[in-house]
Each structure stands twice: as structure tokens, then as C-alpha cells.
């Protein structure tokens, strides 16, 4: 028997994003111009090492001390002479940070304006002869019509809006934020952010996922998925008393959500309180819903203990 959090995310979270234009800042517009994010380290890339270099910049900005050389071992694929996006995302999670992908191109400006560097993937070649390249967006100069990048061997490299947008579009506008668990994206959407945090929970990084779920609950106080995630992380961290108190408080807020009773039953059973666990599991079944089969399995397993 196990506590349910991934299943809750699958039921609760849904949504999709459309692709819209970037919406570049304008001189004398609502955003400062020119604008640069402060205190972003720069690491010049070695041959084929733009992925490790860009990732090192973002991770160090987020508070993780790591070099491009260290990251190369994690993300670089020699046969491809580059780094896959999936490897970049996995490395962020291994280093205890939240990897948040931009939902749409227009989010780029709001994130940079909030002080969040964005790792982007460009194709500097042609569609039939691609030259893939990672860079970090660190600001803009709207009067000059430039976005400012840490790119290749050049820090604060000005690149024309039109050139950047064209080369970025060839990757499907792939962009990634690297954030500590205490910080939300400026354009945060509950569905996307909680899905990103859930990957850490499934990796067993409960001490990282826990504050991230709490950060999410601060923004979305009625989020069932974040509420469940907090309780699961407390349980997985071995703090059964806090997990029990959390699930009981959550039941007061969500009295018809069976997943909370189900998870409370597991916590009670782990504390040797079988009769109370049976009662909680029965209450979960009474709540019904799409996870009822899971609740029934929990009850059966408690009876067999």
C-alpha cells in the first residue's frame, strides 16, 4: 500500500498551452529598458558544450555551485555532440531544483522581467542542416531591438529580436527555468508547476519537494494536489506525527476528498493504529470518486495486516 499523490495529480491537473508571439518590450513601455538580470555568472562554452555551460549559469544563479565540467558528465552525449533537453531537465532535478518549462513564448519576457534567467534552445543553422545551441536569456535592449544572451563564448551578447525569435522557433520555443523550491515562476500555472514538483517527489527528493509544495500552496491555497503533496512528503520523510496532523487539517478543508482519508489511513497504520486506519479507509470509500478502486485496495490491505 502507498500514499496517493501522482494519481491525484493525474485527476486534478489538466490543461494545455497555445503558442503565441513573444511580445517584445517597447522603448518607454511598461518594462524598464534596457534591462539586465543582476548577478548571473557566465561560463564560456567549450566545443559542443553549450548545454553544460548554459545549465551551469542557471544552476549557479539558483544557488547551486556546480561547474560546466561537472555537468558535462551528466548531460553531454558524445555520439550526438550535444545535450538532450531531457538530460538537461533531469540534471536540474538531481541538483535539487525545479525545472519549469515555458508554457508559451510570451512567458519569456515576464520571466526575465521577474529576474529569472531562461535557458533556451536555438537552431542557429537551417531546418535541414540544424546547428543546435543552448543560450541563457538575461535581458533586452528594446531601443536597439535586441535580446541579451549569455551565449557561446560571449557574455551579454546582443541579438536582434527577429533573429532570436526565428532561431528559437525552430526548437518549438523550448525554454526552461531553473528555480529553487522557494520561488515560483512569474507566469506560474498551478497545473504546470505542480507537475514539475511531482517529479522530485517521485525521485524521492522529499526534502526539496516539500518546500516547493508549500510554496505552491502559498499561491494556490485551495490546491488539493499541493495539499496532498505536502502530506506525502512529510510521511516519506518519516515525520508521521506531522503527516497525520497535516492530513487531519486538510480533511477539515476538503471533507469530501477521499484521497486525504486514504492517506491518513496509511499514516495511522504505520503508527500501529489499525482500527483508526480501518475507519479512515472506510471514509475514503464513502467519498467515492475516480480513485475509489485505490481506496478499496487500501482497505483490503489494512484488513490483511
From TrEMBL:
InterPro entries: Peptidase_C39-like (IPR039564), Peptidase_C39_single_dom (IPR039563), TPR-like_helical_dom_sf (IPR011990), TPR_rpt (IPR019734)
Source species, domain of life: Bacteria
A Pfam family the protein falls into: TPR_16
Residue ranges occupied by any Peptidase C39-like domain in the UniProt entry: 39-150
NCBIfam families: C39_PA2778_fam (NF033920)
Protein name: Peptidase C39-like domain-containing protein
Source species of the chain: Desulfosarcina widdelii
Lineage: Bacteria, Pseudomonadati, Thermodesulfobacteriota, Desulfobacteria, Desulfobacterales
Amino acid at each position: 500500500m502507498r500514499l496517493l499523490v501522482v494519481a491525484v495529480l493525474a485527476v486534478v491537473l489538466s490543461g494545455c498551452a497555445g503558442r503565441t508571439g513573444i511580445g517584445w518590450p517597447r522603448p518607454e513601455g511598461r518594462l524598464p529598458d534596457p534591462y539586465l538580470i543582476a548577478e548571473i555568472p557566465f561560463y564560456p562554452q567549450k566545443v559542443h558544450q553549450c548545454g553544460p555551460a548554459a545549465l551551469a549559469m542557471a544552476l549557479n544563479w539558483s544557488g547551486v555551485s556546480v561547474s560546466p565540467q561537472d555537468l558535462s558528465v551528466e548531460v553531454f552525449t558524445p555520439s550526438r555532440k550535444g545535450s538532450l533537453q531531457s538530460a538537461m531537465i533531469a540534471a536540474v532535478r538531481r541538483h535539487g531544483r525545479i525545472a519549469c518549462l515555458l508554457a508559451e513564448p510570451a512567458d519569456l519576457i515576464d520571466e526575465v522581467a521577474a529576474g529569472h534567467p531562461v535557458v533556451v534552445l536555438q537552431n542557429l543553422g537551417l531546418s535541414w542542416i540544424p546547428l543546435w545551441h543552448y543560450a541563457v536569456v538575461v535581458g533586452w535592449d528594446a531601443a536597439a531591438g535586441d535580446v541579451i544572451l549569455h551565449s557561446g563564448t560571449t557574455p551579454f551578447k546582443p541579438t536582434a529580436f527577429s533573429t532570436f525569435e526565428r532561431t528559437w522557433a525552430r526548437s518549438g520555443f523550448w525554454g526552461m527555468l531553473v528555480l529553487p523550491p522557494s520561488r515560483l515562476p512569474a507566469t506560474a500555472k498551478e497545473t504546470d508547476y505542480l507537475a514539475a514538483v511531482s517529479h522530485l517527489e517521485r525521485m524521492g527528493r522529499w526534502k526539496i519537494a516539500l518546500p516547493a509544495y508549500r510554496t505552491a500552496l502559498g499561491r494556490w491555497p485551495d490546491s488539493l494536489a499541493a495539499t496532498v503533496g505536502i502530506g506525502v512528503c512529510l510521511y516519506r520523510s518519516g515525520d508521521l506525527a506531522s503527516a497525520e496532523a497535516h492530513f487531519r487539517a486538510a480533511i477539515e478543508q476538503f471533507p469530501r476528498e477521499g484521497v486525504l482519508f486514504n492517506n491518513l489511513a496509511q499514516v495511522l497504520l504505520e503508527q500501529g493504529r489499525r482500527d483508526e486506519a480501518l475507519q479512515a479507509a472506510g471514509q475514503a470509500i464513502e467519498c467515492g470518486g475516480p480513485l475509489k478502486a485505490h481506496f478499496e485496495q487500501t482497505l483490503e490491505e489494512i484488513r490483511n495486516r
